[in-house]
Amino acid sequence: MSSEIFPRIGLVILFGTILVSVSNIGIIVACWLGGVKIEAIAIFYGKPVFTFKTRFGPVLIGYIPAGGYVRIDMDEFPKKSRIIRCLVNLAGSVAIFITSLITLGFLHTTASFLSTYSQFAGIIFSPLSYGKGLIGAYLANAQITPIAGYGILAAKSAALNLLPLPALPGGRLLIEMTEKRDDSRLAKLLANVGSLVSVGIVIVIVVVIINYLFQPR
């Protein structure tokens, strides 16, 4: 295993932590502007070690130094207008896209955003050749220019968030636009298809990562 692997993995973990934090900030701002009650703001996963109150809601700090989430009042949220619900669902992705604009500029961010879907399809259909090469090139460049590396990942994360999968903002956006929301036929269809697609994506990602880490180069 190359000595470059661990710094690159650390960089990806750092980028992921920043992306989650930016997304959560976007959701918090959208909830504040839309009058949506926040039940908890979690910084890191795991059982809370520290808890304190803010004007936005209680903040929980977990013991696993990765990830985080914003939990909103789901009894109140469905009663909000459709536009508010859609804005809250998109807020995290919009915040991530804005950070990409700041780090890369408009042209580079747009190019990275639009190229995501063709690259994603290439990874799915050819994970061991196209996928491995694409990820390897990205990690190498991100290690040299971390700010640009984050900006590219942020643009692509914002694009992937728009995919019509139930666990992603794109899927939730479609569901929120229906009258029955989670009880609609669309929600049930997305749940069934999304589960199959998600399993397939996870398998492909695991195969690419294992191949990248353990195959000699």
Structure description:
The chain is α+β, with helices and mostly antiparallel strands. The model has no long low-confidence stretch (mean pLDDT 86). The chain has seven helices and four strands; from the N terminus they run αββββαααααα. It has one domain. The protein has a four-stranded mixed sheet with strand order 2-3-1-4, covered by helices on one side. Helix 2 packs across helix 3 and helix 4 packs across helix 7.
Quick recap:
This protein has one domain.
Topology overview:
Elements: H1 5-34, E1 38-45, E2 50-53, E3 58-61, E4 64-72, H2 82-104, H3 106-125, H4 127-144, H5 146-160, H6 169-176, H7 185-214
Parallel strand pairs: 1-3
Antiparallel strand pairs: 1-4, 2-3
